């Protein structure tokens, strides 16, 4: 399995298929409790991988897992500073260890399926152009693209990756990235290309501020609502999970005759939870969920999921 390319950093190739989400079944061989998250190392007989779970997403009745527990993990593949890992959306403790064996057999069957050439389902073929238009990135001016291929966007991406790994999904000060020696060296190298003299501290600070401003414009980072003068990283997975939770909540409370949840209601709830998100950002995430098969339109401007 390999990264698709530099543009889609969270998509991977498995034979002829593109994947993002995984299901793992194995034994916990390592547990590390941190302030922001719990890091479980899971061995599924093919190797070990880190599966991290954010503390703030744990339910009140969550039972801590321990070494030797057999678990089933659902999540998104990521490549972090220490290698490949799983951003866990759900982890279940399995009482029957035979489920691990059954999962291993299932992976062998699925592997043979994934080796077959990928073909689009007929329903997607019929709507291929519409889907491509909705999922295609917004066009950017040519001069911005050329700059992003050199150093400015590379530095911005490095700052964003650092914030994702170190801000602990809590509000952070604007000075946090400037404490990282690797980012400082990268900033000096970029500035040195543009001038003969050694970059000043003010120039370095300005480059960091430009990167953060750009991240805010891209709505990857937003100003904290609770703490003035601080910022927070917007996590795509957290927003998608919140959308799913809204739909599940309404469907659970409503009659089985209810076709779906009005898009306007979902928008209102999401904007209340994530005030800085724009309507087009939420629509994009909903279409991502639809493309992945988690939700689908049950009517005009209505969304539902399989029950």
From TrEMBL:
Superkingdom to which the source organism belongs: Eukaryota
Any Pfam family matching the protein: tRNA_anti-codon
Signal peptide stretch: none
UniProt subcellular location: Chromosome, Telomere; Nucleus
Keywords from the UniProt entry: Chromosome, DNA-binding, Nucleus, Telomere
Domain OB: 22-87
Predominant subcellular localization, coarse grouping: nucleus
Record-given protein name: CST complex subunit STN1
Organism: Helicostylum pulchrum
